[in-house]
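User: I'm preparing a small set of examples for a lab meeting where we compare how different chains pack in three dimensions. I only have the primary sequence for this one, and I'd like the structure in token form so I can line it up with the others. Please keep the answer compact; I'll paste it straight into my notes.
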Amino acid sequence: MARLKYVLRRLLQMIPVLLMVSVLIFVMMRAIPGDPARVLLGEMAKQEDVNRLREQMGLNRPLITQYFIFMQGIVTLDFGNSLVYKQPVINLIRGRIGVTLMLTLFSTFFAVILSVPLGYLAGMNKDRGPDHAIRVGALLAISMPGFWVGLILMILFGVILRWLPPGGWGTTFLDHVRSLILPAVTQCLMTAALLMRNLRNGVVDINSLDYVDFARSKGISETRVSLRHIMRNALISTVTLLMMRMAWMLGGSVIIETVFSLPGMGKLLVDSIFGRDYAVVQVLVFLFSALVISMNLITDVLYSFLDPRVSL
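Assistant: Understood. Below is the structure token output for the 312-residue chain.
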């Protein structure tokens, strides 16, 4: 019951945050220099056509009216029509949100399976060979730009070896999975390196505490000591970092999807910004913000399961 009350309270606290985000999005979009109608129609368009498009986009109305129309669309899930793609915005998002979410989940999966065993191995072998090798590898992964790693993987595995598609999305589910491997590996490297270092430091600190030595002195198996006493407590800060990195990967999908030509929300956002498609850009940025705030809520709730001492 206490957890449910906490979740409800946090959901209510999200409302003013999302309102502030909506105001920032609305103001920043209209602060961009130039006339969106003129950009869409081109410099050679007649003024009558520009005026007609401005009326269609609602740009002739007062700003406060435009904002309330935008918020009404958010509440009713009626986001209007895209002037660039000539279809409802909700259909555009419905067709692309799955790609971005799958990319984020694949990247998270690869990051976890890389970082957890290596971070634990490094922490249990502090200042030994495995620890030094893993820390150097993590430093290299953090230092390499994501778009550069993506291009290298694309050339190596997609062009030279031809093991995986260098870009695109494919038509079947198997094509989709194969198309996500290189982008997910590219996106997960920095996250895996950060998680690895964080988990390694947590394991080193917890492994030296008295209650771990006491558990071993009681004859508890090393596997149980590792899982219940070391890893469970070391994962508390790592879960926070993982959720923050998942939010970062959602935003980072803009670059990854552009490099690998994935039809996700990130690429749609880039194309819509260049096309000055107000309706699409506003909704996508608001949706990204809502997802990030939701991840923060999930992180706080997960704390209570990892550490019973945490009082919601």
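A couple of notes for your slides: The mean pLDDT is 85. Residues 138 and 193 are 4 Å apart (CA to CA).

User: Perfect, thanks.
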